[in-house]
Each structure stands twice: as C-alpha cells, then as structure tokens.
User: Which sequence fits this backbone?
C-alpha cells in the first residue's frame, strides 16, 4: 500500500497519476482554488501490484479536524510507503511537524497492537521497523535540492537534524528518505520517485505482500475502532495489523 500526504494544492493526485498510471487521471485533479480531493480515494496499480491511496490535502478547508486525525491513523496503519509531497523552494517546518505528530499519534494508538503482533509472529525487532517508510518528494524551481551544497553530509542526517531542532522524533517510521527534483521547465520528472518506490516495494523483509481483501479488513477494523464508542469486549477481538501484514499467508511443505 502506497499513500500520499501533503498540503492542499501541492499536486498529490497529479503525482500519483504520473508515477503509477502513466499520466491517466485515475485520481481527479483540478486547476481551481477548491480542493478536489475530499476524504480518501484508492486505486489498484496492476503493474506494481499495489493499492495506491490519495488523501485530502492538509491546511485545507476541512471542518472536522477530529475526522482528519482518525483518517490519518487509518491510512498510516495500512500503508507500507508514505509519500510526503511538497512543491516549495525550501522544506518548511510544517512538513517536519506533521510527520513528527503523525509518528507520535501512530505510536500512541498502535504500540500495544504492534507489540502483540511481534509476539504472535515471533519477531525480535524494534517497533519502528514495523511502521511505514516515508519518502519526502520535494520539487523546487529556483533553489538547489537538499544536500546539494553539503556533499559531506548525508541528506538523511540533514532531515533528522531538522526534526531534532523542532523537538519532533519520527520514531514510528521504518525509514525517512528524500527524493528531490528541480523543475527548470515543466513537466515534473517523476522517474526518480518511481525508482525509489520500486526499490522500497521490492523489500518484503518485514511486510509481506497481501491481498486487497486483507487490506480492506484492516481498514474495516480501524473504522470500527475510531468511529465512536466501541465496547471493550469487542476491542479485545479486533486486530488492526493482521498476521498477513508481517508473515507469509501461505503454508508449504518446506516451512510447515
């Protein structure tokens, strides 16, 4: 599952259309001032065998912040990869604050479930390795890309320094990577982002491929958990992270 976040009007839907669907308008785009994506939309990319999720823009005109927070948690819970899309000459603080707060919320609500999952599946790993990976896709026009003027320092180190200065620690994510592109003349080059995504999607060390049915059931459990008052006895039997997320769902003679 690949999802995308970012401020409204940054071109999230456009990015998904050109990265996964050869520019076809699978996700609606619009040149108007109004946000054209409300809520969450999903589509299946048969070439990469991934479910792609488009989300409502941040800093938009949404009236219910509580619903947006729940929506964020649901999408984070089922995502393997999260793209944060920003079209700005510099990386602004709101990016780091959003990812830091998202990490805190993720750990706050899912740490107990993640620990239970590691016990069920016999995984001796840090909890952060079970969280989604993040790719910051940064498009500039007039400025250099992050790290281009500091070749001695890794881009990841520069990102973590920004998080630390703002007092945000994105501990819930298995990794945070940077992919920048400078657009001297349109259209935007999405090839580098696609390479990053394909590399990440080929890594099944922790999260195994699973069917859309498993993803749907996980979202269903999340919707029940975060849509109102749920009796305690019901919570005890719900699983936000099914075993199929982290273990092979098939049994064969070689592994028993």
Assistant:
């Amino acid at each position: 599952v690949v999802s995308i976040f970012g401020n409204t009007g940054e071109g999230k839907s456009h990015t998904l259309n050109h990265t996964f669907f050869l520019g076809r308008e699978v996700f609606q785009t619009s040149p108007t001032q109004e946000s054209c994506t409300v809520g969450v939309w999903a589509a299946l990319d048969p070439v990469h065998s991934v479910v792609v999720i488009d989300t409502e823009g941040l800093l938009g005109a949404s009236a219910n912040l509580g619903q947006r927070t729940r929506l964020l948690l649901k999408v984070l819970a089922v995502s393997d990869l999260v793209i944060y899309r920003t079209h700005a000459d510099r990386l602004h603080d709101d990016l780091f604050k959003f990812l830091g707060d998202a990490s805190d919320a993720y750990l706050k609500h899912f740490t107990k479930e993640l620990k239970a999952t590691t016990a069920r599946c016999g995984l001796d790993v840090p909890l952060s390795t079970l969280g989604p990976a993040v790719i910051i896709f940064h498009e500039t026009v007039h400025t250099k890309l992050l790290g281009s003027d500091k070749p001695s320092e890794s881009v990841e180190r520069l990102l973590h320094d920004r998080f630390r200065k703002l007092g945000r620690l994105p501990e819930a994510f298995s990794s945070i990577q940077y992919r920048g592109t400078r657009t001297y003349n349109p259209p935007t080059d999405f090839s580098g982002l696609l390479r990053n995504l394909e590399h990440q999607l080929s890594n099944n060390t922790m999260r195994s491929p699973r069917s859309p049915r498993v993803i749907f059931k996980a979202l269903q459990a999340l919707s029940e958990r975060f849509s109102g008052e749920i009796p305690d006895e019901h919570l005890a039997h719900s699983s936000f992270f099914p075993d199929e997320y982290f273990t092979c769902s098939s049994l064969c003679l070689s592994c028993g």
Q: What stands out?
A: The chain has a mean pLDDT of 82. Strands lie at 2-5, 40-45, 50-55, 81-87, 133-140, 175-182.
